[in-house]
Amino acid sequence: MKISYSFLLFFLFSLSFSQTDIAIIPQPQDVFLKKSSFYITPKTCIQADENSFEATYLKEAIKTQTELNLNINFIICYRINLS
Questions:
Q1: Model-level pTM greater than 0.85?
Q2: Which DSSP letter does residue 28 get?
């Protein structure tokens, strides 16, 4: 009986991590999963309206985690694009 509970628990655990849905808001139209990296450097900026709540929130979240104080610009740069 213990073995069947262990198997059921393992099966449910495996099933929950094998799903390909990614929790991103807003939901992107296309997602391509591959092994790669994304680097945020001091030269990275957030491309958005400077008064954007989302851009300010992202800037503060990145600053809290990495101590990088990114700029918010409306011009094209090596960027995180919020449009």
A1: no
A2: P
